[in-house]
């Protein structure tokens, strides 16, 4: 089914998402001052990977050069296939200065209750789902990160920010609201369509 409709489920996002009813926000505790951490030293392999990943993000329009006083650290995490994933370390931003979004995430046991009696299942994973939501303009500078090759900031929501899961869940609940509890279960970026026959 998925191979028949490849244009509906591309393997990669081509560029910036459309405007939506929800934008990502980073609300901070009053009096919070910008946090900026210097980049750490990287080896030649990491630098090659960093350069390639930064260029890809620039080409898609997901990041842009920044003059923000904020600056997070960039780390690399090894993926299962051996390649390296660039991760922005927002722990300082997340820890104690970001006001938490209280939007409820679904409980796993409630999700399983929905599936009682179902025998047919179809799972959809929203790859790069967080990149499908823009960051509201005034909050973009808070996503800045510093690397050897410059200072950049994100224009789309990304993994690693405190309120990203709840914001994305709010968007998904809005999209699937007419079908939830009937034949669709949504858990952040996983969508399960189910039927009793």
From TrEMBL:
Species of provenance? Solanum verrucosum
Cited Pfam families: RVT_1
Q: Which UniProt keywords apply?
A: Membrane, Transmembrane, Transmembrane helix
Keyword flag rRNA processing: no
In Swiss-Prot or TrEMBL terms, this protein is called Reverse transcriptase domain-containing protein
Domain named Reverse transcriptase: residues: 77-197
SUPFAM superfamilies assigned: DNA/RNA polymerases
Give the residue spans that cross the bilayer: 154-176
InterPro entries of this UniProt entry?
DNA/RNA_pol_sf, Rev_trsase/Diguanyl_cyclase, RNA-dir_DNA_polymerase, RT_dom
